Amino acid sequence: MTEPVVDVHLAEDHAARALAADARVGLAANPKTLPPKWFYDARGSELFEQITRLPEYYPTRAEREILGDRAGEIASTSQAHTLVELGSGSSEKTRLLLDALRAAGTLHQFVPLDVSRTALREAAAACAVDYPGLTVHGVVGDFTEHLALLPGEVPRVVAFLGGTIGNLLPAERAKFLRSVRHVLEPGEWLLLGTDLVKDVETVRVAYDDAAGVTAEFNRNVLHVLNRELGADFDVSAFSHVALWDPENEWIEMRLRAEKAMRVTIPALDMTVSFEEGEELHTEISAKFRREGITTELADAGFELTRWWTDSADRFGLSLSRAV
Ligand code: SAH
Ligand code: TRP
């Protein structure tokens, strides 16, 4: 087997340093907030994999259905030599693309990038075993910072799946799409998965499942703060809240303090007080409409050339050309 190359663009202490900076700002804000990338330590990545298998969590299955139907078309349209995947996680659905691009005979290189070093290393190793002859070049990094360092021969398809773009705020999203466009040459491709606006209850239970896995995933960010910054959050005293915001068309995840608490965070030399019922904002997951995402892509220098949905119109996958 060919060993995968894994470049690490995050220093060993990146988590501790950047987390400290984010936590210092976020926990002093009103309302208190924490940025979502801190969910994904080894345990967080494992919990997310469990979420993808929950009966309520439809996005993974819907996107896999589209990829199953359209991977051949994506391969023949793009003729990609390199498949880059941002926020790749386990790269499980991505295998449908790797299979189709191999069958088309154009693919040389796979470049998964993720902030979670455990998820990245496992996925890169598994793909290197299962796709002999394919150069697997993993990158441990942050897709909001490290796009300029991506290797790979043109033409490339950059895949950003799972609806992860919905976890960015609108201004962050615009900046992110422009930065992707900036590293591509005209004629290269962006394959973007976007969860769609639908009835509120379907979305709500996808982010508040009966088995409580999503609640555990949300609370995991407090375990990360306890471990990395020596904080003393009483994790079980926080409950999971998933709220639909009809104005912004996003679902908002929060952690509600079920009692008044004082939390000390030695690494920040900081004490944070929570009132009973106070909510810490952890994550949004925006839902999209075709017209809106077409405009956002155009504003960033992409022409949306193909648009597909699953058979129940829950999820959209678009293939866009850099212009
Ligand atoms: N693409 C997979 C995983 C989606 S979950 C799927 O569709 O199932 C989101 C993934 O993005 C996680 O693996 C997480 O570690 C990664 N991620 C989140 N924020 C990131 C960031 N700022 N930079 C790089 N990866 C990030
Ligand atoms: N990209 C996923 C999504 O927006 C991430 C996710 C799934 C998530 N479930 C979550 C984030 C629960 C926070 C809380 O669907």
From TrEMBL:
Keyword hit for S-adenosyl-L-methionine: yes
Domain Histidine-specific methyltransferase SAM-dependent: 20-321
Protein name listed in UniProt: Histidine N-alpha-methyltransferase
The family this protein is said to belong to: Belongs to the methyltransferase superfamily. EgtD family.
Record-linked NCBIfam families: egtD_ergothio
Residues involved in S-adenosyl-L-methionine binding: G87, K93, D114, D142, F143
Keywords on record: Methyltransferase, S-adenosyl-L-methionine, Transferase
Source species: Kibdelosporangium aridum
Catalytic activity: L-histidine + 3 S-adenosyl-L-methionine = hercynine + 3 S-adenosyl-L-homocysteine + 3 H(+)
